[in-house]
Amino acid sequence: MLHQAEAQLTLSGQLRTRTEFRDGQGAPLPKDAKAALFTSQRTRLSLNYNMYRIKFGVTAQDVRVWGQDVSTINKTTTADNNALMLHEAWAEILLTDTIVKNKTFSLKIGRQELSYDDERLVGKLDWLQQGRRHDAALLKYETKNGYLLHTAFAFNQNRENASGTIYNSTPPGNYTASTNGGTMYKSMQMLYAGKKLEQGNASFLFLADQFSKYHSDSLNAKIFETGTWARFTTGVYFNNTFNKIATTASAYYQFGKTSTGQELSSYLLSGSAQYLFSNKFNAGGGVDYYSGGSNGTTSHTFDPLYGTPHKFAGFMDYFYAASGFGKGGLVDYYAKAKYKPSDKFQLATDIHQFSSAASISGTDKKSLGQEVDLVGVYSLTKMIGFEAGYAHYFGTSLIASPTVKNVTNANLQSNWAYLQINIKPEFLLK
The whole model's pTM is what? Predict the structure, then answer.
């Protein structure tokens, strides 16, 4: 049978600027510290090509802060700045013929984003200007009636070695590799099985990641060794809408060893409900419980892997994002509301009560503070969007204590505000 070659080539871009006022974002500032103000910019150019039994995608990305280079420099030479880079470069081979309409089986290889469910554990981290991607192979089996089975594999090396596979897993620059501030995995295997429901989906995840073994020398520097420590995370996710109540629930268990070689047994429990009062307004609440602490030599601190914490634990990124906060875990009680009077405008607000999941040595207190977030989004056109937000963190003495954020003479009232302009053109190819 002859197949007609109908190639599709699309070219799109993005220019996203974000001006931020930071007065305690990520962690409280000392009382004598001054607030920060800057503008960061992400520029992307994406090319996608589809033809018979193959898809191909490339995304070039530049991330920088306005003014980080003097006007006579045309190339960023400091690795910490993470400026011009290749964000995605992948090809997807359709292993089943495209004339088979009820199922697909494909292999996607190369640098790619991985995004599953609500992105709590595996997500593209789009809020961060540089985002997150993986160098991996992804096998995908999907059926027309909503079943899907994905398996991913990755094996990292620092260079083309002549011998051996020892991997220096310390990430370059100022950015941590995992959501919880950990080092980069040496290898990773993932199994994801899901079923699309009428108004939601249910899924099962098993993810194993391995980290290079190491020991510390007399200067406390890492000396990497042959072999790995293996960590395993497994659990289920569910979301669906019943009448006017949108529900979400998930439960995950983590075991094996941490990236530092410590025995691990931890868990995450999450549940929420939103009531749809109308097409314009919904409100509700929920709770997220990330276990923490330790028992003897066993850690009970859950690591939310490679997710998007900005969506969950407060927009000021105090937890699982900008800076560490000890090993006590987190309990997050929250209420959320969203008002959308038109297709072009929406307003959302969140209120959080944060507490340590485990007891912290030297105190019987667990409250880490409260946070209020407010975000407005306006779409001028399909390709031009404006977003503004403000957040305030009401800290406690515990959040600044040595075993949590470790800030001396901290200002416990913190603020953060931003204005973001997102332009995403789609170029016409003739």
Answer: 0.92
